[in-house]
Write a structure and sequence with these properties.
heterodimer, A: alpha+beta, L,D-transpeptidase catalytic domain-like, nine-stranded mixed β-sheet, 13 strands, 25% strand, B: 7 helices, 10 strands, flat
């Protein structure tokens, strides 16, 4: 009998402790493991204090606001349309090395692979040359067929050759740029390549290299003033 | 006796904690009326060069229920049909999106449009969509659901500016190469370019107005990537815990930090992250 009473007392003792321990652990759990702890606080706030928008307001006022908003939308859309290119344009994706030629309405004419900057830092003594394709919006400044490439200094540095004088004939290369070249400023171009097998890979010194067929279509579609979007 | 004292001490601590949590989560928020941080409205008047007509003047959006076009109970009689209210909210949502797009399109940077209604993330430059990707899954914090549509619209009325970002992939990576001394060395250095494998992506972006955007990849990461991702996740989780605990110790509450987590393909996540400038802007559509 005594043993039974002792067991009962022991059981009650355990039960008595369970409640505060549970409360304590619950509190700690709420604080530490609920990522929405802050959010749940706001839930209560908004439920009680935020009125529903436009609740109980006049239909006339709402209609007036609808008209005003509709008018604003039309004006903003017009403004956005004014920003659209007036000529077909090309979008170049440097991460995937792909291009997309589009009409002024944004419809895709042609997509394909290209090669963009290899993201390389060439260190030559004190000189540091970065080979990367610039990102942003550019304009086709000039279009040329069979354009020779005037090799810059880095082309010689990279090949371990001595740098010739600025007007040296050694700098002229007739084959590298392919059949067509479209200049987009700062020496960057969209042009062809001798290394068609590398298309789709980042291998260039900053220019955008294209396959022969793609380049022909791009050359014939884009004109001076066409936009080039590079991202 | 000792046990009794210990019992009452623990019970007292528990009760104090429960009361404290109730105060922090329920009572204090109700009385302090903390709201979502409001967008700082810039001058959004759009003026056309050469034309000064009323037609081309876009009026400012209503920041709240006050101002010139505020709606008061005394305006007219009767109640508004729900469809009209919904239509107005939809129009305002569209107007805010377009207005933000226009303001960013006038700049030269690439920006992101996160459209959680159509489940798309669009990279734009000068109003031209450069890259669009489908959001496969998205999760938003509870706070979004608890706010009124109007409060959310005000909060989203301006593009968000990135304040801090952490990612498992580098934004720009350069390979350093020492220039060869002669042609012989140059020939030795020539290597065939290879297709690089995409690294596992996990990005945490903290924008102004306390918005946090988490971008996860839909593909299962490889074991190494999984470790890196879980490390970054845990670090942020720890920061959040310590933030909450710190706030609790000061009997204060940090401002609400709404979070959006989106899951997109790895390639798209890489493109978005690499294409965006260092401190990009983002337009949110909810």
């Amino acid at each position: 009998m005594e043993i039974e009473q002792k067991q009962n007392r022991g059981f009650l003792h355990v039960v008595k402790w369970i409640i505060p321990i549970l409360l304590l652990s619950l509190s700690v759990c709420v604080i530490l493991y609920n990522p929405d702890f802050q959010d749940s606080a706001f839930k209560m706030k908004s439920t009680f204090s935020t009125p529903a928008p436009y609740e109980g307001k006049s239909a006339d006022v709402i209609e007036k606001l609808i008209l005003k908003s509709t008018r604003n939308i039309t004006i903003i859309e017009d403004k956005l349309n004014l920003l659209k290119p007036v000529k077909p344009y090309i979008v170049v994706n440097t991460t995937e090395n792909r291009f997309s030629l589009r009409t002024i309405n944004g419809d895709t004419i042609r997509t394909g692979v290209c090669s963009t900057g290899k993201n390389e830092l060439l260190i030559a003594g004190n000189k540091r040359i970065i080979f990367k394709t610039p990102k942003g919006i550019f304009t086709v400044r000039n279009k040329q067929q069979n354009r020779p490439w005037i090799k810059p200094d880095w082309a010689f540095i990279e090949d371990g050759l001595p740098i010739p004088s600025a007007r040296s004939a050694e700098r002229i290369d007739y084959s590298t740029l392919g059949d067509y070249a479209l200049e987009i400023g700062n020496g960057y171009m969209l042009h062809g390549t001798l290394y068609q097998r590398f298309l789709g890979l980042p291998v260039t010194h900053g220019c955008v290299r294209l396959g022969d067929k793609d380049l022909e279509v791009i050359y014939n579609t884009l004109s001076k003033g066409s936009k080039v979007y590079i991202y | 006796m000792k046990n009794k004292i210990a019992f009452w001490i623990i019970t007292l601590i528990s009760v104090i904690l429960v009361v404290y949590i109730s105060v922090i989560t329920v009572i204090q928020p109700v009385f302090t009326k903390n709201t979502l941080p409001r967008a700082i409205a810039r001058n959004l008047e759009i003026k056309d060069k050469g034309t000064k007509g009323d037609k081309d003047k876009v009026t400012k959006p209503e920041q709240n229920n006050s101002g010139d076009d505020s709606i008061s109970a005394s305006d007219g009689a009767g109640t508004t049909p729900n469809e009209n209210v919904n239509k107005l909210i939809e129009l305002r949502r569209k107007e805010i999106l377009l207005r933000s797009r226009l303001s960013l399109a006038n700049e030269d940077s690439t920006y992101l449009i996160l459209d959680l209604i159509n489940n798309t993330a669009v990279l734009e430059l000068k109003g031209i969509p450069l890259h669009e990707c489908k959001i496969l899954h998205s999760e938003i914090s509870n706070s979004f659901r608890s706010y009124s549509k109007d409060a959310l619209l005000n909060w989203m009325s301006e593009p968000f500016i990135l304040k801090n970002v952490e990612a498992t992939i580098p934004k720009i990576s350069f390979i350093e190469k020492i220039a060869p001394k002669d042609t012989l060395e140059a020939n030795k250095m020539v290597t065939e370019p290879k297709e690089t494998k995409l690294e596992d992506v996990f990005i945490v972006m903290d924008f102004d107005r306390n918005l946090r955007l988490v971008i996860s990849q839909s593909e299962l990461p490889d074991p190494e990537g999984k470790k890196i991702i879980s490390n970054l996740r845990n670090r942020y989780h720890k920061i959040e815990i310590s933030r909450t605990v710190k706030a609790l110790t000061k009997f204060n509450r940090e401002p609400v930090k709404p979070q959006i987590e989106i899951v997109i393909p790895k390639s798209d996540a890489t493109i978005l992250y690499k294409a965006l400038p260092l401190y990009p802007r983002m337009i949110l559509r909810l």
